[in-house]
Amino acid sequence: MKQERFITIAAILLLLSIVMAGHFLMQQNLASEEYTARMELLQRANQLNTQLDRDVQRILTLRPHHYDSVVETVSQIRANRKLIGSTDVGLRGIIDKRFDSQIDQFLESSQLKSEILERIKLEAALLRNSLQYLPGLIDELHTETKFSTSDFGTHLLGAFLNYNLFPSSDHQQRLEQLIKDLKVPVWTESLHKLRSSILLHLTANIKHREQISSLIIDYDQLPSSQLLAQVRSRYESFYKSQSEHFYTISQILIVLVLSLIAGLTYTLYQIRIARAASDSANRQLHDALESISEAFVLFDDDNRLVLWNRQYAELFGESADLLQLGVSQTELAEHYLERGDYAANSSMLNDLLLNSSSEVGGSEILVNNCHYLVNSSTISTGGIASVYVDITERIEMERKLYGLSQAVEQSPASILVTDTKGNIEYVNPKFVELTGYSEEEIIGQNPRILKSGKTSSEEYKQMWKTIDSGGEWRGEFLNKHKNGDLYWEFASISGIRDKNGEITNYLAVKEDITERKQVEEQLRIAAAVFNTSNEGIVVTNADNQIMAVNPSFTKITGYRSEEVIGKNPNLLNSGQHGPEFYNEMWVQLQEKGYWEGEIWNRSKSGEVYPEWLSLSVIKDDEGNVIEHIAIFSDITQRKNAEEKIRWQANYDAITGLPNRTLFRDRLSSAISNAHREGWTSALLFIDLDHFKIVNDTLGHAVGDDLLKSGVAIFAKVCFGHPSPSKQQNLTRPFMPTAPRPSCVRRVITSSRLYTTPSVTLRRHKAAAASSSSSARALNYEYADGVDYRGLTAFASLSMAVSAGRRAFNRLRTRGGYRCATRR
């Protein structure tokens, strides 16, 4: 039925395709005829346009005495324009608005040509009129005047004819000059009218000739030929594209028709083959039913026997010969009951004959100690087909599987089984315990319900690729408990195959490894700290042999790990600590389990550096030392920074001299030493004269350099005894000490203190002398009259400054102030 319907539809489509192909061919022929007619119109327009140009040239020669041919040409052009501009047989409205605009431009140009031609005809007629009358008037002028025929009249007539036959600017100028000459002679009253007529015709002739030239220029500038060529080219391109379009459609229709014919032919051929195959299938069905191991029976919608196989007959034993076509299920049952074949087990007979066929579905029966599964289904005609499958082996297998299932149920590992699409079909109690999902909640779900989002899609793709190919996949998952807690599990996933080797399910056996992963994570963090720490780390065994070092150890000491593994850490010994230092360190390490402190070690390059070292001991459960761990950091930069801070706290940043705090400490120490040794000491203040002027005029940078130069000179004068200090911007105190007062006096009175040479500082030459004062009041007998902070000496300095440059003032305080000023 379906095949006949398909043939009908194919025939209709074939007929429609043939009709459409014929229609397109007719349209193509019609379009070809219209194209020919329109091209003839354009060709005719081109011919008439050329004819009009030739007529204009003939008019310019002033030969024709009538314009009948010109009128005929113009009339034909007008008719041709009307045809071209029409929408029926013309060109308008067949392509687009732009093409219509080109047609309008051509028609307008052609119309203008016709109008200019009419004006040229008028001007040519007037010009020809002057040519007819002027020669006679000039002859009359020769007759009536004294001019001879060979002079002025001849020249005038020649110039007139040359200008009209060969128009040019030179001929026009020549004729105009003769016209001027014609006005010069004195004319009589009788000839005055003749001269006026000649001048009138000459002037009119020139005017008409100029008008004709102007019209010719306008005529030649009209692009009618070019516009006509554009219209023709555009129409030819349009027709060509349309022809190609028609050709393409025609080819498609031809191919479609041929395809339908081929398809229809092929369908008829397939129908023939299908009928043969149907007959063959019926035969094969009978053969197949006889060859299968299952019993098969088919009853029609009236419950009458239609088809059965040998295995079904064997179920009835010796009564199998009663199976005939058309026998009903009820007749078979009654016959067997009458013979008593199944009297002892009539319920089994009912299951065998009635229930298995009248109730659509599946049930199990027991015949001769064999288990059969009866599957019945309703066919399209209303009958019932039943298949009896021997499931004895399956029943035995189920008993064995039950024992195996108990083992799975009690397994300490989490187990789940899915179908080939990943839908969960079974989980054991351990899975329920691990995930928090009940069996009812998880069955039918996909294992992705456990996904935490922490495992990449690439890992899942690799897993499916492995198990789909029949392999076993092993790996780790970070999954999510029902309550949201994350846990790690190690999974082994593989396919479950049937007898044919086809994968029917997937089995996953999982182990909870959360605690193990936590331990591994702690170890990983410890390793990361070990490798990335800025402090050097050394691990030694109980015998103090190096087992491991981190990268910072190599960075600080210069030794690579392979150079120190198995060696004693004493290879870093710098020699700056004695044996007692190390003995004390080991004693504390053994007693307290740790030691920390500053130590000086030597790197691979030989450089000695300070480090802060922390030692600790690792013991086993029994208290035995198994490892030592040393963590140290290079504190060279810290030591340098501390030294810099100490220096900045005690010294002036510009001159490098001790500041007030350090000077006060040194002054107190010097006084104490002088008292203890019985030496003489003095406090000396030096002022740089005019230092403020140098500082203000040349800048603070030059002033600072001058201070540094002065300090260097003063230090040389004092022979290394004094302790100079900066107290103010202009003042430098020194404290020379010596066993005898004469030594101190020699320093104070040295001329080099007051003859500071000029120096060049930052490209500026500066010179400054010094003034000084001294207070010799620091030993026992003078101690009562001196303020060690320098107040008395400052008063003496003021006196020396007032005395002028290169002066000093000495102050003794026993019995009062006494000053002596020298230059």
TrEMBL record:
CDD domains listed in its UniProt record: GGDEF, PAS
Annotated Pfam families: DAHL, GGDEF, PAS_7, PAS_9
Residues annotated as domain PAS: 281-317, 404-446, 522-568
InterPro entries reported for this sequence: DAHL (IPR045812), DGC-Regulatory_Protein (IPR052163), GGDEF_dom (IPR000160), Nucleotide_cyclase (IPR029787), PAC (IPR001610), PAS (IPR000014), PAS-assoc_C (IPR000700), PAS-like_dom_sf (IPR035965)
PROSITE patterns: PAC, PAS
Superkingdom of the organism of origin: Bacteria
SUPFAM superfamilies (UniProt xref): Nucleotide cyclase, PYP-like sensor domain (PAS domain)
Residues of the PAC domain: 471-525, 595-647
Protein name per the record: PAS domain S-box protein
Species: Candidatus Reidiella endopervernicosa
Classification lineage: Bacteria, Pseudomonadati, Pseudomonadota, Gammaproteobacteria, Candidatus Reidiella
